[in-house]
């Protein structure tokens, strides 16, 4: 099994699995205003994720074609340029799909937890 996983990485086979809770929070944060360029620190503040989690997520999303990346062009004196991120059309479609799935799952959980009244089906 280990050899297969290693070979998958070598030949660039992408696995199709659901994003983690952290990745979902980043996608949803970016989807709030998809045309807006965002920097990692801003996303860390919004999602509560630490930089050590945020930046690998952003890199993975960009590698998969779900994020556009750019360097800041207007840089205030005394500060280094920041890397900026925003969703691609594919990334926005994914974020919308994941948000819908999340809402559907929440409704189903709520329906299962709601007690049934006697005499109703």
Please characterize this protein's 3D structure.
By secondary structure, this protein is mostly helical. The protein has a domain at 16-71 and 81-105: Winged helix-like DNA-binding domain superfamily/Winged helix DNA-binding domain (Arc Repressor Mutant, subunit A), CATH 1.10.10.10. Helix content is 55%, strand content 10%. The chain contains five helices and three strands, in the order ααβααββα. It has helices at 2-11, 21-31, 40-47, 51-63, 89-113, and strands at residues 38-39, 67-71, 83-87. The protein has a three-stranded antiparallel beta sheet with strand order 1-3-2. The chain is elongated, with a radius of gyration of 19 Å. It starts with a helix and ends in an 8-residue tail after the last helix.
Question: Can you give keywords for this protein?
Answer:
121 residues, mainly alpha, Arc Repressor Mutant, subunit A
Q: How do the helices and strands line up, and which of them pair or pack?
A:
Elements: H1 2-11, H2 21-31, E1 38-39, H3 40-47, H4 51-63, E2 67-71, E3 83-87, H5 89-113
Antiparallel strand pairs: 1-3, 2-3
Helix pairs in contact: 2-5, 3-4
Quick summary of this structure?
The chain has 121 residues and is mainly alpha-helical. The protein is 55% helix and 10% strand.
Fraction of residues in helix? 55-70%
CATH superfamily name of one domain? Winged helix-like DNA-binding domain superfamily/Winged helix DNA-binding domain
Query: What does the largest sheet look like?
Result: 3 strands, antiparallel
Reported by name, the CATH topology of one domain is: Arc Repressor Mutant, subunit A
Low-confidence stretches: none
What is the helix tally?
5
The radius of gyration over CA amounts to 19 Å
**Share of β-strand residues:** 5-15%
Structural class estimated from helices and strands: mainly alpha
CATH class of one domain: Mainly Alpha
Please state how the strands of the largest beta sheet are arranged side by side: 1-3-2
C-alpha end-to-end distance: 47 Å
Mean pLDDT: 84
Instruction: Note the overall shape.
Output: elongated
Named CATH architecture of one domain = Orthogonal Bundle
